[in-house]
Amino acid sequence: KRKGFIFDLDGVIVDTAKYHFLAWKNLANSLGFDFTEIQNEQLKGVSRVESLKKILTWGETTVSEEKFQDLMTLKNTEYLEFINKMDDSEILPDVPRVLDYLKDNKQGVSLGSASKNARVILEKVNILDKFEAIVDGNDVSKAKPDPEVFLNAADAINVKPEDCIVFEDSVAGVQAANAAHMISIGIGSEDVLHEADYIFNDFTEISTEFINKLINN
Ligand code: G6P
Ligand code: MG
Model-level pTM? Predict the structure, then answer.
């Protein structure tokens, strides 16, 4: 049977959290306060605009609407400098193996990401062509944990939500997959992702047998 396999991007296909961290930290420092790795964790799966709102709250800082827009642009400009240096060596282990296996077995494969930079990142690491459809931060109005991004990603490959499987590294993303009535697979730590139907540390732990089970049940 043709199922739909929907991949989050940041933290699932590539580890871009480290670049988000550096760009947000520089921005916070320029405003006179610090930004920690622990705070960065809480921004996983969170859109750019919501991330900046949280950071300003943590820094107990308010800015004008105009300055807010400038900060968003500044952060993304710096983030893109890191992205521009990426290549396929930054694809997380065994992601290509799983993508190729799904394609060889005629499964639907799409991207469901909050990032507005999804296409450029997939191009940089040279796997854009592995996806039948891309649904990203430019296409949705409601952020995860709302299921919109995954429902659109299912629709784009013509697979019913209940026949979809989502790979996610964020709590909000797992909740979005569950809200869409899809099978949720958490990639990361069990402490964080316990709401997921299945949890793996990374794709090296995802066997062909397990994928076959998802395809056939
Ligand atoms: C993903 C990341 C978040 C990021 C968001 C928006 O969900 O996990 O950390 O803020 O995408 O990314 P963007 O590339 O549009 O700034
Ligand atoms: Mg993610």
Answer: 0.96
